[in-house]
Design goal:
alpha/beta; Aldehyde Dehydrogenase, Chain A, domain 1; Aldehyde Dehydrogenase, Chain A, domain 2; 6-stranded mixed β-sheet; 38% helix; disordered N terminus
Length: 548
């Protein structure tokens, strides 16, 4: 069942969003900025966003926060400095809990624990089957505590509870079972040599891995990184995003309940310039894996190089094209493009944030995209049927609004949305721009919010050139009935993933990562194991060999 939940992400989300929008309540008009910069409703554009839950009192989350300290050597401990920082509810901006703030000294303690666990502890010396069994028990515990984990994720992050409980937490369990299956299937080779030598090629764990995860998918990014590292026999120190520390601490406790030895997984909550930088530059960390912005990824790469030249895996930003050809079923294309952009409040590195639509169907597409956005249900993510919760925090909230102002100021047509929703929390109206040009900031830079930019194109060669004219290369979507067109685009687009007539289909076995400035290496699938293994050749002379 977990595998079906993971691989059917698109269909389940689309069905849920259609049902939610079909039964949505009407909402109030929204004040917008006119093209001339003045405030007010755009002529002929009456905004009726569905805000069934936005104006109501926040629902009390059905979970308690029990873990707020650092996890070092199997124990929850205070930070060395004794400092804490608040983690906030994006629905209100109010404090959920105060979490221990780790810094360089805490990273030192965590790395020391991980190093001892690797050099002296039982984990790398266990049989691969024993490690596999621990990961399988961990997956069982995740399923057992599905609802509590999902509630923590929604409370701390703002994503819809139904999304967390029905899709993301089951995907974490599935990923752990996937990597449990790999643990006892990692093997080397015996290779022939030009002479009397026996040659073995061994795949060995790399040692202590440092891992830094983002705030948009805290649970899934935990699984993407921790799963392969443990399957390969490594130990690790994981730094959570300061915006969303709670779910990782909770499931790390479950990992120890499953039988993980002390010191194998250590979790430090803290900030990038302190804890993150200390981890990336630590001389006793053998590998660093980071998911986040491209600019921060460049800093991580530099710190790794300047310290001990540790290996680096980066999954970074994107500005993914979603190409809709003129043979498309427009209604279906509108729904899929809507999902590709607005899923998870638009806070996806692979979001289809450049919607390229063929000129023959452009006007029809824009009108139907507007109608779909106006039906989108925005509100308290704990309420049933809500499609879009708040943005993560005030920094991201204000950044998105600045991009919206930039779009208006640069001459794009604001079709719908364009402002905050309500007066509490970090809610933003689903926003659509048409007449977007490639030179505009909203077409070039990663907004990471619910802002759809719709661009017009004439032919296949043109859209290939424009789609590739980006420093990013994480993902792309193609929507067409023509197999020939699909084949042309999938080979021409310089990205790590191309979804044809679908989007955001994630499976444990499908590798994910980017071209160009969207990253280095791949996560998930067999390719992710390479991030946590190193290769050793062992050569032994053979005397009187019966065969070579």
């Amino acid at each position: 069942m977990a595998r079906r939940a993971a691989s059917s992400l698109v269909s389940r989300c689309l069905l849920a969003s259609r049902a939610a929008s079909a039964g949505a309540a009407t909402a109030v008009p929204s004040a917008l900025r006119r093209p001339d910069g003045t405030r007010g409703l755009l002529p002929g554009v009456l905004q009726r966003f569905s805000t069934a839950a936005a104006a109501e009192e926040p629902i009390s989350p059905p979970v308690q926060v029990n873990y707020t300290k650092l996890l070092i050597n199997g124990n929850f401990v205070d930070s060395a400095s004794g400092k804490t920082f608040p983690t906030l509810d994006p629905r209100t901006g109010e404090v959920i809990a105060h979490v221990a703030e780790g810094d360089a000294e805490d990273v030192n303690r965590a790395v020391a624990a991980a190093r001892k666990a690797f050099d002296e502890g039982p984990w790398p010396k266990m049989t691969a089957y024993e490690r596999s069994c621990i990961l399988l028990r961990f997956a069982d515990l995740i399923e057992k505590h599905n609802d509590e984990i999902a509630a923590l994720e929604t409370w701390d992050n703002g994503k819809p509870y139904e999304q967390a409980a029905q899709i993301e937490v089951p995907m974490v369990a599935r990923l752990m079972r996937y990597y449990a299956g790999w643990a006892d299937k990692i093997h080397g080779l015996v290779v022939p040599a030009d002479g009397p030598h026996h040659v073995q090629v061994l795949h060995e764990p790399i040692g202590v891995a440092g891992q830094i995860i983002p705030w948009n998918f805290p649970l899934l990014m935990f699984a993407w990184k921790v799963g392969p590292a443990l399957a390969c026999g490594n130990t690790l120190v994981l730094k959570t995003a300061e915006q969303t520390p709670l779910s990782a601490l909770y499931i790390s406790k479950l990992l120890h309940e499953a039988g993980l030895p002390e010191g194998v997984v250590n979790v430090v909550s803290g900030f990038g310039p302190t804890a993150g930088a200390a981890l990336a530059s630590h001389m006793d960390v053998d590998k660093i894996a980071f998911t986040g912005s491209t600019n921060t990824g460049k800093i991580i790469l530099e710190l790794a190089a300047r310290s001990n030249l540790k290996s680096v895996t980066l999954e970074l930003g994107g500005k993914s094209p979603f190409v809709i050809m003129d043979d498309a079923d427009v209604d279906h294309a509108v729904e899929l493009a809507h999902f590709a952009l607005f899923f998870n409040q638009g806070q996806c590195c692979c979001a289809g944030s450049r919607t390229f639509v063929h000129e023959r169907i452009y006007d029809e597409f824009v009108e139907k995209a507007k109608a779909r956005a106006l039906k989108r249900v925005v509100g308290d993510p704990f309420r049933k049927g809500v499609e879009q919760g708040p943005q993560i925090d005030d920094e991201q909230f204000n950044k998105i609004l600045r991009y919206i102002r930039s779009g208006v100021d640069s001459g794009a047509t604001l079709v719908t949305g364009g402002d905050r929703l309500g007066d509490k929390g970090f809610y933003i109206q689903p926003t659509i721009f048409s007449d977007v040009q490639d030179c505009m900031k909203i077409a070039q830079e990663e907004i990471f919010g619910p802002v759809q930019s719709i661009l017009k194109f004439k032919d296949l060669n043109e859209v290939i050139k424009r789609a590739n004219a980006s420093p990013y290369g994480l993902a792309a979507g193609v929507f067409t009935k023509s197999l020939d067109t699909a084949n042309t685009l999938t080979r021409a687009l310089r990205v790590g993933t191309v979804w044809v007539n679908c989007f955001d289909v994630f499976d444990a076995a499908i590798p994910f990562g980017g071209y160009k400035q969207s990253g280095i290496g791949r996560e998930k699938g067999i390719d992710s194991l390479k991030n946590y293994l190193q290769v050793k050749a062992v050569v032994t002379p053979i005397k009187n060999a019966a065969w070579l």
